From TrEMBL:
Keyword Nucleotide-binding carried by entry: yes
Taxonomic classification: Bacteria, Bacillati, Actinomycetota, Actinomycetes, Mycobacteriales
SMART domains, sorted: AAA
Membrane topology, from the record: Peripheral membrane protein
Domain spans labelled ABC transporter: 5-241
Keywords: ATP-binding, Cell membrane, Ion transport, Iron, Iron transport, Membrane, Nucleotide-binding, Transport
Cellular localisation: Cell membrane
GO molecular function: ATP binding
Name assigned to this protein: ABC transporter ATP-binding protein
Length: 259
């Protein structure tokens, strides 16, 4: 399968500190790729670089044959959508209004709100299950519902690639799996490519088709979860002595601490 992103020798520094060091990898199209690794290893920096929120000092990021540095901001936003960590909620905004902002990349200087825009917002509200709360203010919703709204904004962009930066942080376990179930639906129903930064290794094993394992600003391994994350990697990267076994009716991979 043709990769969506091809990242070559990428380097990024923030505040004089090297965050990404000579990162090279490929992101497969039409799959869920999870980026995992210890805190501060560069996961979010890598994701934000793929959306060109952070510029590269060296190297390149090729997206569908084009260097993202050569794409206009609006053009890139029509192809790649980023759901950032803990975004600020505009005061007084309703669910439908926020989701509608996902159509901005499709608006020209003289273009008006169209039937296509309306349909895209309606689809995003339906997929995320937000139709019944569309006119409510975002601040009136629970944390889990708010995350659905931000995902709805991303879906309204109608991009072929969705980047999610720690989307399950601060959610209870039910809402975490509910949100990741929606991510699976994007892959299965729409064939979208999803790249998600996750802290929870169990969720990465459960939902990802492809893993990118990072440590100290570098990519240490990539591949299918069962072939990439084993007990030795968990011990080395996270300091956890554990077995990885299959369990449950789906025979999913499960991390079982030994201590």
């Amino acid at each position: 399968m043709t990769p969506t992103f091809r990242i070559s020798s990428a380097r990024v520094s923030l505040g004089g500190r090297s965050i990404l060091r000579d990162v090279s990898l490929e992101i497969p199209a039409g799959q869920i790729t999870a980026i995992i690794g210890p805190n501060g290893c560069g996961k979010s920096t890598l994701l934000r670089s793929m959306a060109r929120v952070l510029p590269l000092e060296e190297g390149s990021i090729i997206f569908d044959g084009a260097d993202i540095a050569d794409l206009g901001r609006r053009e890139l936003s029509r192809r790649v959508a980023l759901m950032a960590q803990r975004p600020l909620i505009p005061e007084g905004i309703t669910v439908a209004e926020l989701v509608s902002r996902g159509r901005y990349p499709h608006q020209g200087l003289w273009s008006q709100w169209s039937a296509a825009d309306e349909a895209a917002v309606a689809r995003a509200l339906a997929v995320t299950g937000l139709e019944s709360v569309a006119e409510r203010r975002l601040t009136e919703l629970s944390g889990g519902q708010q995350q659905r709204v931000w995902l709805g904004l991303v879906l309204a962009q109608e991009t072929k690639v969705v980047l999610l930066d720690e989307p399950t942080t601060f959610l209870d376990i039910g809402h975490q799996y509910d949100l990741l179930g929606l991510v699976e639906k994007l892959r299965d129903d729409d064939g979208r490519t999803v790249v998600v930064v996750l802290h929870d290794l169990q969720q990465a094993l459960r939902f990802a088709d492809h893993l990118v394992v990072m440590n100290d600003g570098e990519v240490v391994s990539t591949g299918r979860p069962a072939e990439t994350l084993d007990s030795r990697a968990v011990a080395r990267l996270f300091g956890l002595d554990a077995d990885i076994v299959r369990a449950g009716t789906r025979q999913d991979l499960v991390i079982v601490p030994r201590a």
